[in-house]
Structure formats: structure tokens, C-alpha cells
Amino acid sequence: MRIRRSKGSRAIGLFALIALLLSSHASFAGGPFVIDSAGQPAVWSTAHSVPFHTDLGPLGLLTNAEAIALVEEALQVWEDVPSSSITFAAAGSLPFDVTGSNVFDILDVLGDGISPVVFDHDGSVIDAVFGIGASRSVLGFTAIEFGQSDRILEAQAVLNGSVLDGDPTNPDVSRESFLATIVHEFGHYMNLDHSQINGELAFDGDVSNDDGLPTMFPIASDSATKTTLHLDDIATVSTLYPGQNFSTSTGSIEGEIVLGNGTTPFQGANVIARRTGDPIHDAVSYVSGALFSNTFGGGSSDPAFKGLYTIAGLPPGDYTVEVEQIDPTFTGGSSLNPLDPPAMLPGPEEFYNGENEAGSMGLDDPSEATTITVAAGAIAFAP
User: Fold this and answer.
1) Predicted pLDDT at 147
2) C-alpha–C-alpha distance, residues 28 and 2, integer Å
3) Based on the domain organization, do 282 and 174 belong to the same domain?
4) Residues 78, 346: Cα–Cα separation, whole Å
5) Of the residues 172, 198, 231, which one is the last residue of a structural domain?
6) Does one domain contain both 186 and 311?
7) How far apart are CA 174 and CA 225, in angstroms?
8) Which of 309, 191, 308, 177 has the alpha carbon at shortest distance from 240?
9) Looking at the structure, do residues 122 and 223 belong to the same domain, yes or no?
10) SS3 content of the chain, % helix, strand, coil (to 5)
């Protein structure tokens, strides 16, 4: 589930990743999740490394040292993005081994300066938070704490060791798949939202092509490829935490999604830019109106944001721009900002086709695409 709740001047954004273990449709955007009232995403300060405090106990069959090493391996994936400035720092251990019986002594304790990474050895922590049996499907969850500004103050992550315990009665996952879970959860730790790109690859039964899925795709599968970041993941983390050369080495496409009358903005369409040479891997998404008021209690009330999209972090080249429906099953913990449930497109999915854009299906071929040239350090427009 994803929950946002206010506690005085602070709030928490909660994310959960639910494994694709029991059903082919079991569930848990390119862009940020937590947005403030000015339309700014919450971010950690890059004046220092992002802190994390590790649990004292084991994680399934992993020793504490092995669990910490797995976390550090996952964090290195994000630190290795050359266009991003994000770094992490181990800030010490938690004061006690967290279990289902004491979890609320460490989670949601705001203002204590601790950002816990909990090793839920037997699933009891997740069961305590989400209810008995939740540990059979929830691989992990993450929450961020932010204040009146757009700065993240603390965060917390819980990792489910019961899927690594070797018990044949439990739905175990591979080490590499669990590593992908940790990479995903630390994406949320930085305020990356879920992302929908190449969703058809997640359900085709072929794990060999799952490198076309972003790490922040809402559904977890037993594929190690999601430990390697997709361009969508790279663009999003670099937009939130830009490195020195990010803005000059990449470009962006901006535009507005409107209804057939040509003026009414539409919030909640998934907009994808695909480079023509490799449209599966060189693709970045953004949901229209992501910075506008959303169903999670955040976003700007300025109507100018409602249909806008900005797809940043694009390597120079020629791109198509398409508008697609967000999967209607991506609700609750699977949802993409800004709307839960997703908005339904009022017409067919389609490509941007320049001067041939029209508000009527009879006048506008949805399969016709006009390429847009993106230059480094420049903004291209697809109005």
C-alpha cells in the first residue's frame, strides 16, 4: 500500500513492493511521488550523503553482515549513475534488533535522526504493519518523512527476509531478484515513484527481455535484469539529484495533454518518449499533471500544472512521443502518481504527429508518429 498521513508539520509517504509470486497479476512513473503544495518534489539535500541505519539481526538465511553487504550493493547501483549526484552513507546501527513485537518503537518515530533499514528476518514486521499473512506477498516497503519544505528529513525501509529463508512452504525469491527489490525500495527512499514502460514485457513469460522494464516498474518478477537501471530510472534519479553535467549533456521534451477540444488539460496520461534507434531501452516516461493536485494529498493547485509533462534526461537524438493508458490494475500499492485509481483515457492510445494532431479520430491517425529532435542542453516541445 501507499499511505500518506500528516503528523504536525511532517508527513510520511509510504511505498510497498508486492511480489509477483502467487498470481500472474499480483501487485503491490517515471517521476517523483511526494509533491509539495508548490509543485516541487521532495528530495534529500545533496550537501551531504543520504544516511541509513541498519538493523542488528539476520535477514532470512543471510547473516547480518551479508544483509548489510546486499544493501550496500543495491545502493551502489544508484551511486554509479554518472549523471546523478546522489550518494549514501552508513550512519550506524539501530539500537536493537527489530522484530514484529517492537517494530513500532523504531518505525514512524519522527525527528529522531534515524533512517532505519529493517531486516525483517521472519516476516513478522511486515505482518505487524500490514496484517497477518502480508509477508507472503510484500517483499518490502519504504517511507519518507518530509517537513514544510521540500526536503526529505528521514526515511525508513523494511526488507522481508521470509522470502529468503529456504522454507519450501514460503514463496521464496532468488538472491538477485531480492537485490532488485532493494534497488527498487531505495528508489522510493529517494522519492522515485513507480514507472510504466514496456509493460507488455512483464507479462509475456519471457524473463530474457525484462531488461526493457524499469527498476521502478510496480510489479516484481524473478528477473535479475532489474538490478541494472533502465534509462527511465537513470533519467528520473538524475532529474531529482542532477550531477554537474546532467543539464548540458541531455535534453528534454515538454508539452501538455489536452482533450479533443484542444484546450481542456488532461491529468493522468502516461507519456513516453522513445529514441528511434532503440525504442525499448532508450525510453523515458512521465505522467501528465504529476505536479498538480493528486489523490495522495500533495501537488500544486495551480491549474497550469494539470496537463503538463516534462520528460527530462534524454540523450540527444530523434524521439517519438506516445500517450498511453496507465494499467487500470495499478492501484493502491501499484499506483502511479498522481491518480489512484488511474484516469481512463477518453480516446485511443496514440502518438504525437505534429501538424496532423486533431481532436477527432476521423482526422487523426493514432499510429502516425512525428519524430522530435532532442539536443543536449535544450528543450524540445510537443504541444
Assistant:
1) 76
2) 9
3) no
4) 37
5) 231
6) no
7) 12
8) 191
9) yes
10) 20, 25, 50
